[in-house]
Specification:
The chain has about 375 residues and is an alpha/beta fold. Helices cover about 40% and strands about 15% of the residues. The chain folds into 2 domains: about 5-60, no CATH class; about 65-375, Aldolase class I (TIM Barrel, Alpha-Beta Barrel), CATH 3.20.20.70. Helix 3 (about 35-40) runs antiparallel to helix 11 and helix 10 runs parallel beside helix 11. The structure holds ligand V47 and iron/sulfur cluster. Ligand V47 binds near residues 187, 188, 191, 263 and 270.
């Protein structure tokens, strides 16, 4: 509520610099890169939380969104060797690898026949032989079987590799996959855009400029997408703000991003296991600052399988208005990296309860934030902007 946020401006314990930022936020003015950095460096959780909650309630009222989805991870074989990744196996490794055929993927979709699932999220390693035609065939088979299912698939990293191999321009490749049934892009592979940090933790994979260009091209073809930021490893606060600023600039041009998803670095069983993980307080501060900084994003998503149900519940008071989906134990990316949820699966009822216990109104959405069902007893539904 504005009155709660206005209290910050009258609080003598708060510096004038922070009060000036609070005034901008309460007047719905955009904060600058320097303001964002000041928030990271100086603001306590209570301060950013109050402002973020103000922004969140202005944009989404009391609603917290979720969807019914499952994941297909076609392979964990990857030509890259990102230092933070616990999931991939290099092509030359002999154990623990998996590769799904088109039929395997179709059978996974068939498991959900008759269930009110609205989205399948397809993401995996960058396999040297799973090419654009293979994925085109998979998309077409899934669409033919279940035309109503929204297919959100492939990070810009996977797309960049498969288009380059097929000698297709980004636009040609995206159009090809769109024609086969691809509806939107997930937000993975963004990691951190700063070129030095990116090269250190994710050598050789598509650059920040290429990642942004693929999302821009998707938006221009009428496909929505998500975006992420992998934080809490070797990056600085300045790198986080720079990352979000590049996203904010693209969003000003295309308005094509649905949601921003901060991804907390997990250090289990990867080449960066020596890097300590961030605290929950830092995670909540990060959600809040993202909510304040990204004024042209309608939604901020906390990915519950990664941070766990407790932090997901807390995050709804720190700018988050979406906690992703039912997942149904179909993803390994985070459980292999040491996430809170080892076998992530929540029924719709459990998600609804989680949101209600946090004092929010559960709204089931589809991928594009159309309301599927309002689970509150209240009459009023907060419509997405
Ligand atoms: O790009 C990999 C991250 C991403 C680790 O768009 C790690 O709706 C933390 O992007 N610690 C893939 N993060 C997953 C992703 C995603 C997830 C949920 C929803 C959506 C969406 C997108 O996972 C990778 C990378 O940034 N990741 N390893 C790790 N150890
Ligand atoms: Fe491959 Fe993605 Fe893991 Fe990097 S993060 S090694 S691109 S699966």
């Amino acid at each position: 509520m504005k009155t709660t946020a206005e209290f910050l401006i009258n609080n003598t314990a708060i510096s004038n610099e922070l009060k000036a930022i609070a005034t901008k936020v309460l007047n719905n003015e955009r904060i600058t890169v320097a303001d964002g950095l000041t928030l990271y460096e100086q603001a306590e959780l209570g301060f950013v939380g109050t402002l973020a909650n103000y922004v969140r309630e202005q944009k989404n009222g009391n609603a917290t969104y979720f969807n019914r989805n499952f994941h297909i991870e076609p392979t964990n074989i990857c030509v890259y060797d990102c230092k933070f990744c616990s999931y991939s196996r290099l092509v030359k490794q002999k154990d623990g690898q998996w590769e799904l055929s088109v039929n395997d993927m179709l059978n996974m979709v068939k498991k959900y026949d008759g269930q009110a699932i609205t989205e399948v999220h397809i993401v995996g390693g960058v396999h040297p032989r799973m090419d654009v035609n293979f994925f085109g065939e998979a998309l077409a088979a899934i669409k033919a079987h279940r035309p109503d299912l929204h297919i959100k698939g492939f990070t810009a990293v996977e797309l960049y590799y498969m288009f380059r191999k097929a000698k297709m321009t980004v636009k040609e490749g995206l159009q090809f996959l769109k024609d086969k049934g691809l509806d939107s892009l997930p937000g993975g592979g963004a990691e951190i855009f700063d070129e030095n940090i990116r090269t250190t933790i994710a050598e050789d994979k598509c650059t920040s400029v290429e990642w942004l260009a693929i999302h821009q091209a998707a938006h221009e073809l009428g496909m929505a997408s998500n975006c992420t930021m992998l934080y809490g490893h070797i990056e600085t606060y300045a790198h986080r703000i720079d990352h979000m600023n590049r996203l904010r600039e693209l969003q000003d041009i295309t308005k094509g991003f649905n949601t921003f998803i901060p991804l907390k670095f997990r250090n289990h069983d990867n080449q960066m296991s020596h890097v300590p993980e961030t605290s929950v307080i830092e995670d909540l501060r990060n959600y809040a600052i993202a909510r304040i900084f990204l004024d042209n994003f309608n939604h901020i998503k906390a990915y519950w399988p990664m941070i766990g149900r407790q932090t997901a519940a807390l995050s709804m008071n720190y700018g988050v208005d979406d906690i992703d989906g039912t997942i149904d134990d179909s993803t390994k990316i985070y459980s292999m990296a040491g996430s809170e949820e080892q076998n992530p699966a929540l029924t719709t009822q459990q998600l609804v309860e989680l949101i209600k216990h946090a004092g929010r109104t559960p709204i089931e959405r589809d991928t594009l934030y159309n309301v599927v069902k309002n689970y509150s007893d209240e009459e009023e539904v907060s419509t997405p902007q």
